[in-house]
Amino acid sequence: MPATPVLDALREIHRLERDRLASTPHKDMPKSPQAQVAFLHRRLGRNTSRVAELLGVHPQTVRRYLRGQRRNPPPAFADRLRTEVAARFRSRFARQADTAIRQQGLRAYITATFTFSSPSAGTSDDGRERRLNEDLTPAETERLLAARDAGDEQRALQIVGQGVGEAYFGLRGTGMDVEVRDLIHIKFEL
User: Fold this and answer.
1) Cα radius of gyration (the chain)
2) What is the spatial distance between Cα 42 and Cα 48, in angstroms, rounded to a whole number?
3) With b meaning 16 or more CB within 10 Å and e meaning fewer, what string describes 2-12?
4) Among 145, 159, 152, which residue's Cα sits nearest to residue 105?
């Protein structure tokens, strides 16, 4: 399997933001055991047996929680219940994480060899290893997320290299192309 350091770094920042969102209380996330069981019941097509199987309990136990006859679950059951409810909310958190990344933009920390080329000036033959950290523009961040969703490592590396190079070397709008060779390290932050 080919190495995908840029996509891995993007997935990592996305996971960190998603987990941060998941760890904060949300008003629409059910809190009581009865509400959590009812939430899972709705999400699983109102199938009591599927909910019971998912939680590792008897279907009658699920019915009791739905009716409000049971209120204080044992710790192991409460943990499974919270975990399964949070997993159903993760897709919402993933969308919110992407929105936060788009709104705040990304800062790229990259160590690599950079080379330059332009139609008028030619190509630099002697790329140098540099350790750079620059903010990507909203448009570059959007294109980077699209490359991540497409699973296109080469395109993602090209977008990061061009964005970081243009910002660091002041090349925006000059028509000069920046290429990343020999990527050593990459990390993103919000």
Assistant:
1) 24
2) 10
3) eebbbbebbee
4) 145
Query: 103: alpha, beta or left, given left = phi > 0 and alpha = psi -120 to 50?
Result: alpha
The predicted-structure confidence for 114-125, as pLDDT tens digits, reads as follows 888 877 766 776
pTM of the model: 0.65
Single-letter amino acid code for the residue at 73: P
Q: Are 184 and 3 in contact (CB under 8 A)?
A: no
Q: Write out pLDDT tens, residues 152-164.
A: 999 999 999 889 9
Angle between helices 153-169 and 138-150 (to 10 degrees): 160
Pair 123, 116: CB distance under 8 Å: yes
The C-alpha atoms of residue 19 and residue 42 are separated, in whole angstroms, by: 24
Q: For 48-61, give one letter per residue: b (16+ CB within 10 A) or e.
A: bebbbebbebeeeb
User: What is the Cα–Cα distance from 41 to 186, expressed in whole angstroms?
Assistant: 43
| Phi, psi (rounded to 5 degrees) for 44 | -100, 30
